[in-house]
Amino acid sequence: MTEITINDTMNVLEACGLNLWYGSQQALQEVGIAVPALQVTSLIGPSGCGKSTLLRCFNRMNDLVADCRITGRIAYRGDDIYHPGYDVVELRKRVGMVFQKPNPFPKSIYDNVAYGPRVHGETDRARLDECVERSLRQAALWDEVEDRLGDSALGLSGGQQQRLCIARTLAVEPDVILMDEPCSALDPIATAKIEDLIDTLKQRYTVIIVTHNMQQASRVSDWTGFMYLGRLVEFGRTLQVFEAPREELTERYITGRFG
Amino acid sequence: MTTMTGTTAPYLAGVRIPALRERVIELLWLCCALIAVVAVVFILAFLVVDSLPAFRETGIIQFVLGSTWDPTFDPPSYGILPLVAGTLLVTFGAMAFSVPLSIGAAIYLAELAPSRVQAFVRPAIELLAGIPSVVYGFFGLVVLVEWLRVTLSVPSGESVLAGSILLGIMSLPTILSVSEEALASVGRDLREGSLALGATRWQTIGQVVVPAALPGITAAVILGMGRAIGETMAVLMVTGNAAVTPEPLLNVLSPVRTLTGTLGIEMGEVAIGSPHYHVLFAVATVLLMVTLAINLGASRILERLNAVGSGRRVPLLAGGFLSRLLSGPVLAGVVLVIVAATVGSTAGPVPALGAFAVGATLLIAVPRLSSRQKERFAFVLVRAAVAVVLLVLAVILFDIVSKGLPALSWTFLTGTPQDLGRSGGIFPAIVGTLSLVAGSIAFALPLGVGAAIYLVEYRQDGRLVRAIRSGVDLLNGTPSIVFGLFGFSFLVLYLDLGVSMLAGQLTLGLMVLPTIVRTTEEALRNVPQALREGSLALGASRWQTINRVVLPTAAAGIVTGTILSVGRAAGETAPILFTAAIFSQRYLPTSLFEPVMALPYHLFVLSTTVPGSELNRYGTALVLVLLVCGIYAVAIAVRTRFQTTMRQ
Fold first, then answer.
1. Which of A179, A183, B419, B612 maximizes the CB count within 10 A of its CB?
2. In this structure, are residues B226 and B295 in contact, taking their beta carbons and an 8 Å threshold?
């Protein structure tokens, strides 16, 4: 395990000694990571290495998996999120998530974006309108949909749907955005748009992105974690991880000499 | 393909013969599929032809708008308005019970229940679905009606309320299982998307999952409604059968008579060819039209919602009039007014005001709760819904098993009935039911499977396929008593089969045909396209592919569908009422042209016309329940087994 030293930023999410089992199968082993604020952190590694699982620990999405068991500690801004008294709904408001496959609700574009504010009690039409427009602008989708906000979200292209899902997440005004391979179902042009978007998002949000694609990690992220077989093998500045990896495993993976 | 090693010549020569064979086979399946259409046309034709004299005699206006139904009076009056009112009251009453209960229970099962609870509740629901309607009627008559009479201290419990509760219970499993399926098929990604935005589980259910499943839930409710409207035996046994329009209309303690009940009661006693006889066929025609309209409406709604769900337009319910109509507060207000009006019409103004006050308080209080409190409140409600459903099942089963067990004995099972069924056994009825079922399946299985093969494997679309599919849908929506009337008119009289086992078998077979077609269709559709392509790519012909790859893969589904049909046929009473069944018979039938005893009919007659036969009633009910549930248990076992072997 690499020692992590981060001096210039404050850590938003910190995990230590994190173990996770699906039934009897261990998916995460003694993972420790500190995610710096207002930066983009990427998690890379081969399929099944546990990177999505780790990501889903940060907003407790794994709660939905029937026989999932967790030990260790994850702190969000200092509070243990797996503490029995911790409010998971509040956590998910603060730690948003964008999924691998775009998953717009079968509602209109407007209602998709307004969904989050509405479930959190916003009923004022003017404020909702304002929030929907702001979120769609931030997600670089406004120009493409402003004249058809009432249309079904299911009629959008895959890339637009994914940006809609990002807008939907932004509308809740989260602190952290988790992205689980957000571009894996998209074509290169749509991917480029999302990557540009991620770059602008980090001015206001902390982003953690899981990706299969090492070029993507090196393009968009400031920090990179390499995972293998449920362990976090290496974590550091993206430049350092890609150009001077400390671990041999990391180097072999990055240079494509794996297995 | 006899030679695989020769030159190209034998190959080319071999092509023609399979091609011809393929076409013959396709034609064969087409004929099977057309049977459904032909059957619908025949049913309609025979009903309409037999009801025309009625319209001529009574006058269509007099018939449709007449407010008195008194066919035995002199002069007789044949106004079906009270019957229509009775049918509508009982049906909507049933929906008032079953829709909230079953949707609540479906939400619990699909969203909240741990898998251990699901594994326990699902078979229980299937059991509830499997209990034959005559057994429900019997239970309603001896337990429910009596309970209502004592609890509400009224002279008789035979009423709209009793019919509504009973029909509500009977339509529960349909609505519940179809809604649960609809809820469960909503993608996990949508749920996660909502939860990840910080919505509570209840917000996710109420604002994402249920709206996404709405087409399926709508279909479920309509199917349940169709079941309630078409039900004969149970309704007939508990609604009192007075052909009057309740005064005031929403007085749920008034007795009523439904369209189906009228047919069940009067058809057996009417002189063939008399004006009354033709009027009854006219009633059946009306009943059929109503159910057909409901089913057509349902499929329209479904088509539209489905098209919307995947298309570019906004869902039907986002914005617009319907959405406001269905929005929580408005809907709740309407329900509240109806409930208060019903209580008022039945029990007077004071209880009505009380009900209104309670309802209004809830309406005002609930929106003020925090989203957590709402969630807790909603979860309590859906849990309670499941508890009520299970309790109902437990009460019914306990009553029938505890009182039926003492009747069971070797002589009861193997003896013939004596003293009008008060003593002796039910052996001829058991044999009769089994042979009716065997005959009906022998008739319906090849036809149904053939039709499904044609629909899935040969023609997916086109005018003909749409006609066939509507034919199947219409048959499926046809009330069982209408099958009975058709069987009587066509098989018994026109084909001169007489009241006979054969006529009963054919009528029942026609009734279960759509079930077999649909389940087979579904099983065939579940076979992955890749398997077909794999086989075709190896040079197998279409029929070879179907026969060797598709059918074996779909076998489990087909077998399950067949067994379910067996259960349905075994429990039905209405179709055999006038076509095959006879009450008391000392000997077993020796040919297909003799009438037979049957368990459901035996139970019906014992409980409605033979006083002093309590023990044997319960015994017959228990045997019938055991028989049908045994059949369903086999179906479930087969399904589970095939599912597990398929997965490995």
1. A179
2. yes
